[in-house]
Amino acid sequence: MNDPIRKLSPSQVAFVEELTAIQGSMKRFCISILAGDQGAEDVIQEANRVILEKADEFQQGTNLRAWAFEIVRLQAMAHCKRRQREHKLVFNTELVQTLLERSLELDSMQASQMGALKTCIEKLDDAEKSVLRGRYWSEKTLAEFSEEIGRTVDALKRALFKIRKQLRACVRQTLAQEKLHDA
C-alpha cells in the first residue's frame, strides 16, 4: 500500500501535526474576521492550501500559529475585498482589521492560559492528577468514577473543587509572572 505520510520527513510530519492541531483556532479566528460571512470554510481551505504550498518557507522553531494566522488573515482580507467588489459586504476594512487584531489578542491569551494550565496540572501530585484524569478524560459519570476509586460522590466533588481552586490560583500566578517577565 502506498502511504503518502510515510514519505514525509520527521519535520514535515511535525509541521502537519501542528497545523492540524490549530485548525479549530484558525477557523474561529477566520469566523471572527468575516463577522457572519458564510465564506469561512472556503477561506480556511484556501489558507491551508497556501500554507502547505509555502511549508518550505516556514522556519522550523518559529511560531507556526502566528505564521498560519497571518496567512488566514491575508486570505480573509482577500475574500472581503472580493465580496466588496460583488457589493455583498458592508464592513469596511478598518472594522475588519480591528476585529482581526482583537481576535489575535484573544487567541494569544487563550494559548497562554492553556499553557499555564498544562504547567499547573504537571505540578499536581499523582493522586490529584489521577482524579482529574478519571473525571475529565474518561467517559465515566461522577458516580461511576467515585465507585471505581472507592470514594463517595460528595468526597470526590470536594476533591475536584479543591483541585480546581488550586489550578485557578496557579494559572493566575503563572500568567502574572509571565506578564511581569514580558514587561
Automatic annotation (TrEMBL):
<dbReference type="GO" id="GO:0003677">
    <property type="term" value="F:DNA binding"/>
</dbReference>
<dbReference type="InterPro" id="IPR013324">
    <property type="entry name" value="RNA_pol_sigma_r3/r4-like"/>
</dbReference>
<dbReference type="Pfam" id="PF04545">
    <property type="entry name" value="Sigma70_r4"/>
</dbReference>
<keyword id="KW-0805">Transcription regulation</keyword>
<dbReference type="InterPro" id="IPR036388">
    <property type="entry name" value="WH-like_DNA-bd_sf"/>
</dbReference>
<comment type="similarity">
    <text>Belongs to the sigma-70 factor family. ECF subfamily.</text>
</comment>
<dbReference type="GO" id="GO:0006352">
    <property type="term" value="P:DNA-templated transcription initiation"/>
</dbReference>
<dbReference type="GO" id="GO:0016987">
    <property type="term" value="F:sigma factor activity"/>
</dbReference>
<keyword id="KW-0731">Sigma factor</keyword>
<feature type="domain" description="RNA polymerase sigma-70 region 2">
    <location>
        <begin position="26"/>
        <end position="85"/>
    </location>
</feature>
<dbReference type="InterPro" id="IPR014284">
    <property type="entry name" value="RNA_pol_sigma-70_dom"/>
</dbReference>
<keyword id="KW-0238">DNA-binding</keyword>
<dbReference type="InterPro" id="IPR039425">
    <property type="entry name" value="RNA_pol_sigma-70-like"/>
</dbReference>
<dbReference type="InterPro" id="IPR007630">
    <property type="entry name" value="RNA_pol_sigma70_r4"/>
</dbReference>
<keyword id="KW-0804">Transcription</keyword>
<dbReference type="Pfam" id="PF04542">
    <property type="entry name" value="Sigma70_r2"/>
</dbReference>
<feature type="domain" description="RNA polymerase sigma-70 region 4">
    <location>
        <begin position="120"/>
        <end position="168"/>
    </location>
</feature>
<dbReference type="InterPro" id="IPR013325">
    <property type="entry name" value="RNA_pol_sigma_r2"/>
</dbReference>
<dbReference type="InterPro" id="IPR007627">
    <property type="entry name" value="RNA_pol_sigma70_r2"/>
</dbReference>
<protein>
    <submittedName>
        <fullName>Uncharacterized protein</fullName>
    </submittedName>
</protein>
